[in-house]
Amino acid sequence: MSIELVLLIVILLAGFYMAWNIGANDVANAVGTSVGSGALTLKQAVMMAAVLEFAGAFFFGSHVTETVQKGIVDSDIFMQNPLILVYGMLAALLAAGSWLQIASYFGWPVSTTHSIVGAVIGFGAVVGGWEAIYWNNVAFIVSSWILSPLIGGAVSFFIFTLLRRRIFNTFHPLEEAKRMAPILGFLLVSSLSLVMLFKGLTNIGVDLNFVQSTLFSALLGLIAAVIIYFAVKRITINPDKPKSQTAYGPEIALGLEKAQKHLRRVKQSAVGDMQYHVSILLDEVDNLSSNVKQNIQEEVSNSEYTAVEKVFATLQLFSASLMAFGHGANDVANAIGPLAAAIQILMTGTIPATSAIPTWTLALGGVGIIIGLATWGWRVIETIGKKITELTPTRGFAAEFGAAMTILVASRLGMPISTTHTLVGAVIGIGLARGIEALDLTTTRDIVISWIITVPAGAIIAVGFFYVIQSVFGHATLGAW
Q1: How many domains does the chain have?
Q2: Which of 78, 147, 165, 416 is the most buried (most CB within 10 A)?
Q3: 421 within 8 A of 111, measured Cβ to Cβ
Q4: Could you report the per-residue pLDDT of 181-228, keeping only the tens digit for each?
Q5: What residue numbers bound the domain in which 108 lies?
């Protein structure tokens, strides 16, 4: 058996292993908030993601990709012996897959892109030295550690605060939720569609410019808005559980806010003992108002608030579906890109600027992703959906919507951004909107640490795999395929 055939078999297995770990770790970003909020059960999420992830990977996954080392490592160092790059690609797949498996075991949501980048840095430095690495480009990629969670968290914080004010703190929360749902659905679907459509259909021979992509995305958003309108129209308050007279109703909250304003005016104009007594009364009303605002968000047992959450559970079905489809289309390249480049090197003996990806390898990646999700995905889903902060459909939707808007804007501006980091930052932003005590700071700390060590961990593991592979296959050169 020739060295090329042996390497091909090993690389195929490594590509499947990488895809399996992408499914175990990264797919949780698409469905984690929906499972954590209760909008989907774990079984439903796995079944939905299995279909949509595979469809996205197989039908819309990139059929042409730039080789992974481009922009990270000087490709001239591989020209004399392209087989070294094959070893490197194999080492990168095994290293990134191993790190993702470790992270998934502990439930850490990490970036698959950063894992691959770290692995490429590792074997590139071994072959060409530190000067062979384009450190400016690496720094640009690593900056997403800061940008992604901060922007995602800020946008989601704003969206959740807006929903709380415009829906929960009103006299008729369910009516307001039904009124806003089609609008939010339109914005969500059109935004996520635009992310996928703009330059995303070139894989199947369709090249839409930004205006065409925007119009088509708006049409999809309009269709989604109509479907959501009729879907939420049927949601009513449970007749067996009439609306209770809760001590924390929105009418009381609004009344206390008005009382605070009037008391502040009286305090400014009063003097002496009158001002002292008004100050004491104002402090009591401030404390009471603060307690009411805090508890009004926790009154989810109220039948009308439960109905509101059903409205947002419907919206989450759309957001989870689109994110799963988009993830399959975009991130399958993390597993199949290095695989395709290695296959082409083995077949031609030269290093391609771009690599044609056979359709069967996209299917291989799609199958690996859904098997990874079904077997180990629950670990990261549990972290995103339950361990960072308590999620409801409203909070989960705000996180997904915030992440989607952040990714859209960042993609148009060319900012380096990580989908994983953005969504985790969005979930943290939702927790902060409810107060710092709503966050599990231990889990948040562990996640941030895992982000910081992802690139160096990928590099170190890749170096180890590279030396092992080189010792097994020796310093051979490519012959005829």
Answers
A1: 2
A2: 78
A3: yes
A4: 999 999 888 887 887 776 556 556 667 777 888 898 999 999 999 999
A5: 3-241+299-473
